C-alpha cells in the first residue's frame, strides 16, 4: 500500500509515465488511475463511478460498519461527495460552501475554507442550496461557490490562489455543479433555467483562473462555438453538419437570450479524442407555447474539443421541451458491445426517461429505450431522426396553457435527475438510481424580469402507478440492448449517486437515509441508516490497506426541498413538496459524512 | 425480553406493585427501575447514571459498532440525551428545541414538535443555545424551551397538553435545564446568572401545569421557603438552624434582587425522605467587590421537601464567590461507606474543584477534598465551618477590580461543569468528567440594566499546568475518602456526561467527538469518532434483546462556544474562545445522535 512519501513518489512516476497523454498538464488523470484515491467526483474522467478495489466484496459486505463520521457544520441538501487524494480527504458542504481538508490518519481538520457569500443567492436557487463538490488537480482544490465565484485553493493550506466570478446572481445565475479539471483547464457551468438564464460552459486556466474559452448553449454559432460545416448532428439516420444558425432559427425572436440550456450536471472527458461531454438543461420558460421551435441547443448532449471549446457534435434529446426534462445528466463513457459490435459508447440516462447509447466519437445514435416502462410522454424515439414520438395526450404544448395536463410520466424531475449512475466494466452493466414519479402540469403565461422566477407552470407530483407503490427504483441496465436487467423497488426516489466495485458490490443511498449494498443481481446485502436522507454520491478509497466507503447525508435537493427549506404547500418546490411529503416521517435535516469499512482484523 | 404488549403489562404491574412509594402519582420511578428504559435524563432519580444492563461488557466493548444514527436537524451544542420508554425514543435539540419521537423498530419519526420561539432569546443565553433534554411521565413529555416556556406534550401524538411561561427573557431569564418529574410534580429552574437574574425553582402540577410552589435562592425567608427555625445548615461541626434572614443579611441593600443563584443543573430526589436536591449558581455580578457578604444562598446545595418546597437543609460551598464557581452540578444520591460508616450520602463535584460528601438526610458535611490537585483558589475546606480556606493570592476580592489576577485554578468553568458524573454501586466509585483549565480573572465595575449582560469581569482560559498538557481528565473518585482512584488524561475538557454499567464498562464523550469506553480501572477499551464534538450525556437501553448505547454529538456549550457561535476573539465566550481555540482542528458544528450496539449475531 502506498501512502505518505511513497504515495508522492508513485504520483510523480505516474505523471512521468503517462506524460504524453496529458502533456504534463495535470496530475488528475494519473491520480484517478490509482484506486486508492477518489480524486474526481465521479472517480474518473469517464464518469463511470467504478472502483477496482475489492477488499469489500459481495460475501463480506454484510459486515460493513461505520469507521468514522464527520459533520459538515451545514444543514440542507448534500449532493456530491468527498475527494480522497493520498492521505487527505476534501469534504464540501452546500451553501455557504465550506471546504474541509481532513487528515485520514486521525480525521483531524488540516484546514477549512469558509467563504462569505451574500445569502440573498439562496432566493434564486430553484432546488435547494446544493453543491456537487470540489475538484482536485496539481495541489489545488477548485470550489464552485453558489454565488458563481470559482475559487482555487492551495490543497495543502486552504489559502486562496485565485478566484473569478463566473455569473450574476442578480440575474438568477447561480452555480451548483462541481468544477471539473481536464488537462490544464477547470471547467464550470451555470444554473438558473427557472430564471431565464442563458446557459454556457466556461473553461479557465487552472493555474491562473484566466478564461480560455466560453461556449453558450443557445444563440449565434460563434457564441456557441459551433462550426456550421463541421459540427455534426444525427440527421436522417446519419451524422450531418448542423448548418448555419442551427440555434437561432429554432427560437422566436430573442427568446434564446433568456432561453435556459443551463449546464449544472457532470462533465466527462476522453483523452483519446480530446473531447469533453456534457448536457444542457431545459429551455426557458416551462410554458412551451411561449417559445415555439426546437429551442436548440437546450436539452442537448455536447461533445466539445477541450482545447478550443469547438463543438464536434450535438444531439438534442427533447426538442421543444414541454416537461422540464433537462438534459444535464452525466455522460458515461464506456467501451461496450452494442448490438454485437464493440463501440466507443457514450451512455446517458435522460430525465425524459430514455436511456441513450451513442457513438461518443461520431455522435451517432445507437440505442434509445425507456428505462422505466411507466414513461408515457413519448412512445419511443424515432431512430432515424433521433426525435421522440410525442404522445399528444401528455403534450402541454397541445393541451395548452391554463389546462391541467394530468398523469404525465415521468414528472419534471425525470426518471432520473443528476444523481449519477455507475458502470461496471466487470459486469458490463449500468447501475442507475431512478425516480418513479408522475405529474400534473399546468403551464401559464409568464413575463420575464431579470432575477425573478421565470417558470410558467404549476406542478404536482405523486408516485407513478406500479405494483410496489414506491417512488423509485434502483435498476441495472444493458446499454447495448436498451433493456432493464433488474429493478429493485424503493419507497422514495433514489436521489444518490451509485458506485460499483470490482468486489461485485454496488452501493447507493436512499432519501430515508439508508446506504445500501447490493450484489450484481440487485440482491440487498447490507444497509445502514445514516443521520439524514442521502442525496450524495457513494465513493470509495483505500488508506493504509483498508478499503473505505463514504457518503454524505443531508436531506434536500429538489426531492427533499420541503424538508430543506421548510415548505409545506403541496405545489411548492415545483411540485416536489406534496410528492415527497412522507419523507418527514423518515428523516430530518442534517449534514454529515459517514465512512464505512470492514471490521478491523 | 419485554416489548410491545408485554412491556405495557409489565409497566402496569410495576406501577401497582410499587404504588405506596409514589402514591399512584407517576409511573416514572417504576419506569426507571426497568433497565430496558432510559426514562429520565440521569437514568433514575438518584442521578447515578448507572445501568444494570451488561450485555455490553469489558470483554466485548471493543467490538461495539454503530447501529443507527439520527440527525436532530439543528446545529450548535447538544447537551443532555435521548430518553427511551418502551419502544419509543424521545430526542431533543438545542434552540429552537425540537423534540422527535422515534419508533425504535425502524427509527421512523412518530411525531415531531418544533416550537416557534423568538430568536432574540439567543442573545441572552450566556453559554450557547443548549437544552439538557426532556422529561417523561405518565404518557407525557415535558419540554423546557429556551424562552422559559414549559410545555407538556402527549407522548403518543406530540400534541400540546398545556404550557406555562416560567420566566422573562427580556430580563435575561432563559432556561437550559431539563425539567424533572418527581411524583406528581414537574420541576424547572432558570438560567441567567450573567444577567442578574434572581434564581428560583418552581414546581408545577404535571397534569395541569398549575404552579404548586416556587422557592427563590435569595431574599426574604418566605420567598426562599426557608424556615429560620427548622431549615438547618452545617455550623461549627454540626447542623444548626439557619436563623432569621439568613440570606438578606449576607447581601448589601437590594443586591439580592439581582443576585443570581440560578438553578440550571440536574435535580435528584429520594422518595424515602421525600427530599429533592439541587444546587444554585453564582451570585451576580462576577465582580465580588460589588456584593459584599456571603451572598447566601447562592452556591448552595438545597434539600427541599418535594410537597411543600420547604428547605430541610442548605450548604453553601463557595460563600461570596469570586470566581464564578456555580454550585449547580448534580447531587448524586448513593448509599456508601464514608470513613468506615454506612451513610445515606449525597456526593457533589463542585465547579470549585472540591468533591463533597454529605449526609443527604441531615445535611452534615462528611468529606470535602480536591478532585484535581491543581485547584489553588483554596487550600482546603475547613471541616468545622464547612467554608473554604481561600488563598489570598488568587482572591479577586482582595486583589481588587481592574487588576488581572493570573493563574487561578480552576477557571470559571470549574474543575467540572454541568456534565454529570456517574456512580457505580457495583464498584462503589464515581466516574467524573473534569476540566483541567486555569484562568486570569480581572473584575471591573458593572451597572445593572435588565436584559443586558451583568458580568463584571474579563477572563482568559488556558490549560492547567500538568504533565500531559491536556485540558481535561476523566477520573474515578472514592467519595468515602475523598481520593482520586485513577485519572485518565484528555486533550480537552471532558464535557460529556458519563455512564457506568453492570458490564464493568464506563462511557464518556470528548470535545473532539470521540465516545470512549473504559474499564473500571480507566483502561481504554474502545473509541469512535462521532460527527461532531460531544457535550451530550451517554445513555443506554435495551430493545428486543439488544443493549444500545447512545450519545448526542454537536459541539458547543461554554467550552465550545467559539465554534458554536462563530466567535474568534480570545476573551469572547467569557474566556473560553481562546482557551479552546484548538478545538477547530478536530471537530465541527453538528447535531446528531449516534447509537451503538454489539455486532448482530
Characterization of this structure:
Two copies of one chain form a homodimer. In chain A, the strands form ten sheets. A six-stranded mixed beta sheet of chain A has the order 16-15-20-19-18-17, with no helix packed on it. In chain A, 64% of the residues are buried. In chain A, 7% of the residues lie in helices and 35% in strands. The first copy, chain A, has seven helices and 40 strands. In chain A, a hairpin with a 2-residue loop joins strand 21 and strand 22 (341-349). At the A-B interface, strand 2 and strand 40 of A face strand 2 and strand 40 of B.
As a percent range, the share of helical residues of chain A equals under 10%
**Per the principal axes of the C-alpha atoms, what is the gross shape of chain A?**
globular
**Which chains have the largest interface?**
A-B, 35 and 35 residues
Oligomerization status of the protein chains:
homodimer
Instruction: Tell me the total number of β-strands of chain A.
Output: 40
The side-by-side strand order for the widest beta sheet of chain A comes to: 16-15-20-19-18-17
Number of helices of chain A: 7
Structural class of chain A: mainly beta
Largest sheet of chain A: 6 strands, mixed
Mean pLDDT figure of chain A? 95
Distance between the termini of chain A: 17 Å
Tell me the strand percentage band of chain A. Answer: 35-45%
How much is the radius of gyration of chain A in Å?
Answer: 22 Å
Poorly predicted runs of chain A: 13-23
Amino acid at each position: 500500500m502506498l501512502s505518505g512519501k511513497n504515495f508522492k513518489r508513485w504520483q510523480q512516476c505516474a505523471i512521468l509515465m503517462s506524460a504524453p497523454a496529458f502533456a504534463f498538464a495535470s496530475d488528475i488523470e494519473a491520480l484517478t488511475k490509482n484506486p486508492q484515491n477518489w480524486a474526481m467526483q465521479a472517480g474518473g474522467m469517464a464518469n463511470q463511478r467504478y472502483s477496482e478495489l475489492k477488499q469489500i466484496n459481495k460475501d463480506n459486505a454484510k459486515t460493513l460498519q461505520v469507521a468514522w463520521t464527520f459533520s459538515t457544520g451545514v444543514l440542507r441538501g448534500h449532493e456530491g461527495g468527498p475527494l480522497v487524494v493520498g492521505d487527505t480527504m476534501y469534504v464540501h458542504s452546500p451553501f455557504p460552501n465550506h471546504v474541509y481538508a481532513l487528515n485520514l490518519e486521525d480525521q483531524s481538520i488540516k484546514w477549512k475554507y469558509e467563504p462569505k457569500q451574500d445569502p440573498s443567492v439562496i432566493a434564486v436557487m430553484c432546488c435547494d442550496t446544493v453543491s456537487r463538490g470540489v475538484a482536485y488537480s496539481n495541489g489545488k482544490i477548485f470550489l464552485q461557490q453558489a454565488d458563481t465565484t470559482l475559487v482555487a485553493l492551495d490543497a495543502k493550506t486552504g489559502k486562496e490562489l485565485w478566484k473569478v466570478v463566473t455569473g450574476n446572481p442578480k440575474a438568477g445565475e447561480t452555480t451548483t455543479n462541481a468544477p471539473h479539471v481536464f488537462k490544464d483547464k477547470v471547467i464550470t457551468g451555470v444554473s438558473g433555467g427557472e430564471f431565464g438564464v442563458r446557459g454556457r460552459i466556461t473553461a479557465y486556466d487552472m493555474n491562473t483562473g484566466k478564461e480560455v474559452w466560453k461556449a453558450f448553449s443557445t444563440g449565434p454559432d460563434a457564441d456557441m462555438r459551433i462550426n456550421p460545416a463541421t459540427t455534426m448532428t444525427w440527421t436522417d439516420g446519419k451524422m450531418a453538419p448542423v448548418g448555419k444558425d442551427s440555434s437561432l432559427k429554432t427560437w422566436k425572436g430573442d427568446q434564446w437570450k433568456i432561453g435556459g440550456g443551463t449546464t449544472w450536471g457532470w462533465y466527462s472527458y476522453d483523452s483519446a479524442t480530446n473531447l469533453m461531454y456534457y448536457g444542457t438543461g431545459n429551455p426557458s420558460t416551462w410554458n412551451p407555447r411561449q417559445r415555439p421551435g426546437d429551442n436548440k441547443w437546450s436539452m442537448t448532449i455536447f461533445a466539445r474539443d477541450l482545447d478550443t471549446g469547438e463543438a464536434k457534435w450535438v444531439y438534442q434529446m427533447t426538442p421543444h421541451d414541454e416537461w422540464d426534462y433537462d438534459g444535464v445528466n452525466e455522460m458515461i463513457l464506456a467501451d461496450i458491445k452494442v448490438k454485437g459490435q464493440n463501440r466507443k459508447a457514450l451512455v446517458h440516462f435522460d430525465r425524459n426517461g430514455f436511456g441513450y447509447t451513442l457513438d461518443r466519437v461520431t455522435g451517432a445514435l445507437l440505442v434509445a429505450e425507456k428505462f422505466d416502462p411507466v414513461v408515457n410522454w413519448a412512445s419511443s424515439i424515432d431512430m432515424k431522426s433521433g426525435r421522440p414520438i410525442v404522445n399528444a395526450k401528455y403534450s402541454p404544448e397541445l393541451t395548452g396553457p391554463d389546462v391541467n395536463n394530468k398523469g404525465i410520466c415521468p414528472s419534471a424531475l425525470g426518471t432520473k435527475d443528476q444523481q449519477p449512475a455507475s458502470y461496471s466494466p466487470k459486469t458490463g452493466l449500468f447501475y442507475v438510481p431512478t425516480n418513479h414519479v408522475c405529474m400534473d402540469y399546468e403551464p401559464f403565461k409568464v413575463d420575464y424580469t431579470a432575477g425573478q422566477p421565470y417558470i410558467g407552470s404549476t406542478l404536482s407530483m405523486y408516485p407513478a402507478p406500479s405494483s410496489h407503490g414506491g417512488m423509485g427504483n434502483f435498476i441495472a441496465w444493458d446499454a447495448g440492448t436498451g433493456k432493464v436487467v433488474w429493478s429493485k423497488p424503493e419507497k422514495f426516489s433514489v436521489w444518490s449517486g451509485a458506485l460499483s466495485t470490482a468486489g461485485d458490490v454496488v452501493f447507493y443511498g436512499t432519501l430515508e437515509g439508508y446506504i445500501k449494498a447490493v450484489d450484481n443481481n440487485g440482491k440487498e446485502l447490507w444497509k445502514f441508516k445514516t443521520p439524514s436522507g442521502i442525496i450524495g454520491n457513494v465513493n470509495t478509497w483505500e488508506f493504509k490497506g483498508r478499503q473505505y466507503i463514504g457518503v454524505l447525508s443531508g436531506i434536500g435537493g429538489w426531492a427533499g426541498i420541503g424538508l430543506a427549506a421548510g415548505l409545506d404547500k403541496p405545489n411548492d418546490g415545483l411540485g416536489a413538496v406534496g410528492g415527497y411529503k412522507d419523507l418527514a416521517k423518515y428523516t430530518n435535516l442534517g449534514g454529515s459524512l459517514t465512512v464505512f469499512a470492514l471490521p478491523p482484523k
